Each structure stands twice: as C-alpha cells, then as structure tokens.
Fold this protein.
Amino acid sequence: MSEDLQPMPAERKLLTPGVFVLFALMAVGLCFAAYRFMFGLSAVTNLDQHHPWGLWIAVDVASGVALAAGGFTTAALAHIFHREHYHVITRPALLTAMLGYTFVGIGLMADLGRYYNIWHPAWPTMWQGNSVLFEVGMCVMCYLTVLYIEFLPIVCERFIGNERFPRLDRVCALVHRIVEKTMFLFIIAGVVLSCLHQSSLGNLMVIAPTKVHPLWFTPILSLLFLLSAIAVGYPMVIFESLYASWSLKLKPEMHVLSALAKYIPVILGIYLAFKVGDLLIRGSYVHLTEGSAQSTMFIIEMLFGVVIPVVMLLSARVRNSPRGLFIAALLVVLGVVLNRVNVFLVSYTPPYTTTSYFPAIGEFAVTIGLVAALIFLYRVIVTYFPVISHPVRTRTA
Amino acid sequence: MKTTRREFLHKVGLASVSGAALGASARPARASEVVRASPDALGVLVDIPNCIGCRKCEYACKEAAGFEVQPIETFDDKSVFEAPRRPQPHAYTVINRYANPEDEAKPIYVKNNCMHCVHPACVSACLVGALRKQPNGAVIYDAWKCMGCRYCMVSCPFEIPTYEYDNALTPQVRKCTLCFERISQEGGLPACVKICPQECLTFGRRSELLELAHEKIAAHPEQYLDHVYGEHEAGGTSWLYVAGQPFEQLGLLKLGPQAPPALTEAIQHGVFKYWMPPVAWYGLLGAIMLLSQRGTAGQVSAVAGEAAGLPVDTGGTARQHARSVAGGDGHQDQAGRSSVESESQRVVEETTE
C-alpha cells in the first residue's frame, strides 16, 4: 500500500457562507450588466470620446487573458518538457485557463457596443489580417476551442462507469480514447496559440505611440507581454492551488508548488532584465522621477509586482512556507494585473484629452460579479469533476 | 539528471531566440510597409488664414449627414469658441478659434475633422474591416460589420472617431466620411467645401492640392510658413493645411512621418511571414516533446506515450495510471515531505544553477 495522488471530485459541501457572498456579488454585477444592455454603455460606464477603453478591457479582457497563462505554461512544463511530477497541477491550471478565457468572452460581450456581432472576426469575408486585434481575436477563439477539447477527458472520466446510463458510459469512453490519443496535437497548439495572442495583446497599444506614456510605450511591448504572461503562469497556479486547498480544506500540494516556485525568479528575472534594458535603451528612465500618476504607478508595478517577489522567491524558506509562497505568488499576480491596467488605462493619455478616466461603480460591480461567477464555477467543477488530485491508497502490484 | 538541465536551457534559449526573431523580422519589413497615396486619391486643402469662423461648414455637414440641425442663423453664435471643441457623434466637423499673436483683432479659425489618412490607423486596427480606405481617398464606415470594440478610437492619432455610448442596441462609430456618396458622383463636392463662402477649402486630387499648397507658400511667404500639414504627418493625410503660425499653436498635433500602423503591421506580418514562425514553433515544440519523452522514457513511459499520441495499451485510463506510476515511488513521511518532493527539488536546483 502506498499513498498516491489522483484527480477526483472534491465532493465538498457546495453552499458554504462564502458561496452565498459570491451569489450576492454576482447578483449586483448582473443588475448593472442588465442596466448596461438596456440603456447603453453611457448608463453604466465612465467611458467617453477620449477614453474608449476602460476597466472591462484592462481587467476582464487583458488581465483575464494574462492570468489564464497558467494553462499553457504548466501544459508546456508537464506535457512538452515532460516534467512528470507537475502533472497534479495541470488539471487545475487547465480549468483556470478554460474558465478564464470563457469569462474573457463574457466580459467582452458587456463592453462591445454591438455584442451580437462578436462572431464577425470568424467570418472569412470580414477577415482583416492587418489588424492586431483580429490576430488576438482569432487566437483567443481557437485557443478557447482547444481548451474545451483538452478539458473533455475530465468531463468524460466523470461519466465513465456510469451504470444508470450505459450509453453515456460508452460514448464517454470513446470520446476519452480519441481525445487522449490526439491530445499532443492540442497541447502544442495551445502553447503556440497562447504565445501568439499573449504577445499580440501587447502589440495592440503599439499602434498609438502618441497616446501611451513613454514609460510603457515600446516597440517590444509584445515581447514584454509574452514574457510577463509566462512569468505569471506559475504564480497564478500556486496562488489558486493554495487558495483552493484552504477553501476546500485539503493539504496544500507544497511538494509540487515549492519546486514550481523555483522557476519563477528565473522567468520573472528575465522579464525584469528586458524591462530595465528597454528603459535604458529608449532612455525613458528619465520619466521615472517626474512624479506623475504614471511614474508612481510604474514604480509600484515594478517594485511590488516584480522586484520584491523575485527577492522573496529566491529564498528557500519562502518557497517552502505556504504563507510566504502564497504572498509572493499573489504579488506577481497583482503585479501583472497592474501592468495590464497601467498599459491600457493609466498610460493612456491622448494629447487632446483634458479629463482623466476612472471606472464607474457599475464597471467595478460587473467586473467583481464576473470574478465571483468564475470562482463559483471553479468550485462547482472541482466539486463534481476530477480536477484536483487527492491522496488515495492504492495497491501497487 | 543532465537531460533536465539541457531541457531547461533549451527552453530559455528558445524564448530568447523567438524574441530576437520578433525584433529582427520587424526591422527589414518596416520599409515595405510604407503605403503611398493612390494617384486618384482626393482631398481638401484648408487655407487657414482665409477662414473667418462662420461655421457654415458645420451646418452643411450636419445637414448632409442627415442629423437634426438648427437653423443656419444659430451657427453665427461665436460663444462656442470660448472652449476648444472636438468632433462629436453628431458633429463631424468643428471650428476652433485661436488667438492671433500678430493681430489680436483677427483670430485664427481651424477646422477639425477626419484627416482621411493615406495609411489610416483606424482601418488597420479594425478587426472586421468595418472601416475601409476607398480608392478615392475617403475612409468610410460600415456599421453592419462593426462589433463596437472601439479600437479605431484607440488607434487614431488625431482622436477623430467618436462613439454613440448612449445607444444601447445599434451604436455606431461616427466620423467625417469626406461625403463619400457625393464625391463619388461626377463633379460632386463635400458639403463643407461647397458651402464655404471664403474659398478657404479646395477640393481636388491630393497630388494637385500639394502642388497648389506649395505654390501658395512660394507666392506669399509673408502669409504662410513653409509647412504643409498632412503632407507627411502620420504617413500623410487627404486633408492638408497651410497656415501662418506653427500648427502646434493651432491645435494640430505634432506627429512624425511614420504612419502608426506601419510598425504594428510590420511586427504582425513578421510573426506570420508565410506562416513560418508559428509552424516552426509548433514543430520545435513537437520535437522537444518527443525528445524529452525519450529522455524520461524509462521512468514514465505511459504518460509520455499518451502525450505523444503513441498507442498506449491502458487506453482510457492511461492518464490516471501514468500518474500513479509517476508519483508511485513517493510515500509521505511524517513531516509531510515526500521523497518525490526532495527529488523534484534536487532536479530544479540542478536546472537553475
């Protein structure tokens, strides 16, 4: 007899007090969203003719995509580089990515003026290959499909061996077999698609050189976005794994997470080197001391989101302590969210603009409601589907 | 574990190589992204010193666009000039007033509207082709295609496209169309050009307007600065301006000669050149997958086989089976640290040396 880790439904009580808090947040968000769809964007948002993009694009879409990077980074580590002991975290990371991208789509629907045309980029007569946003849109659509396919085996496993519906059992077993045999194609495609759109998301703002503050505007913004997305992948997996362990009262998977954390200072360090090199080469470091909202936000982003977590995670004591690891991972996650908010909102200073943009209460409510819905769905899925690995006693032959 | 170190270096190397490729492919391509104005492209030359700020063009524009419009007398109201204005969803063109440093009694009036760029950022930005540059120079909008993402507004260096935020169901991006319908007909003029009582606006081929502008400057050097705004700004525009004061003092932005989309299109087309970079990246990852599987084949053949698509006799339960194989030798001791943990740490220590 030995103790193994195997993914299986968590089978915890679903309706805890925390879940009711999520319901309340979702209800508030839904009210504001309904109001937006009835009376238009101006009824709920602070967007104006000079600030066409707001909180929903910066957080729901740009940050949502970045934080879902745990999916492709862990898939690359476990399946492409064959670091097998990281298998236990691939399913939770896959679930985060799948839900994350799904909610990117839902969040985008609220922001699009003609949301019912969201399918237009997929229609060949409307393809526009010069558009960076077209590339992002197509890659996100393809990647979301890939994520759903990658998730299929988890759904199938839930129903394999179902005695009440033998036909369902047979269909699931067949689908499971087909998907597992072709899985390698989807795993590589997922990594390629992720690299493409994570970087293009940064290229979006390169078209507006006169509007983006020089601390962030750089022709290599796409490379910085790709590096920061890769850098936030493992911290996001660690953050949610520890959070789920505490919430579901499971033993934290520290033996995997501590090892995974060793990669973070390396990747984050490379990102930091590119950031610093970019500031030096373009000479934009002179703006660091201008004392504006932009320079302050830039310093906060780099200090708390990059430098401090790198220093923290270089220490083995931090990596081996659930609390220390959680704080360091959370700093990286918040740092990347702040970077996206900075690039899309704080740095966006169009020359004719005299006013500044701050999100309205309704924009916050919808974003918070979406996050609450995502957390709730995550909880539902790990409760009923084999996502999180649990120790099981198995007989080893 | 030498293979793991090699794998890791491989990964880091790949990241930097792909990064370098991104930068490298962007550079040579940049020159080829320069878009020149078509010889048939039309445009308007604005002779700023001639403008008297009568705002008749604002009236004619609203009327031509089919917007609700006040009687023409109301446009004599000069109080609107107190604060600078920008185009609005139902006001495609606005006149702003600037103080004349040479003669206080003669303020300077500047007309603002879509510049109809030679290589428009909005057209490059629009992911569904709702904004299109027409052969005659006009940049026009097709509401039916539009998703309402407002990336055109983000991209426009002149901050021209506006949005109907208060329309819940069918909001549109709104901007000057260069009266596309009218100018498509023989002898047709944009409404603003037609009504202008001062002959401040000249409509014609962009190439001829440029010649005319330079002739004006040469004939009256005391009246004009030697700068045609729009000849080179943001890659060139269909609307051209001549003035006696520096354009920055007249609310016209100082912009470089490069069209904003030149760089983004060069990067994007570099990344997708003949589809080679994504396909190569796919192939490379596939190769790594195969090679690293061979490296660890002894330990975890089932997972490797599964992931690489090789037939695995355990079928549907391969993944679970493999996982128990992978973690099989790790039993938990009392401190909660398994032997898998110490093994994995040792591996990572080696790779990050």
Remarks:
- The beta strands of chain B are 42-47, 94-98, 108-112, 131-133, 139-141, 162-163, 173-174, 201-205, 239-242.
- Chain B touches chain A through 100 residues (CB under 8 Å).
- The first helix of chain B runs from residue 2 to 32.
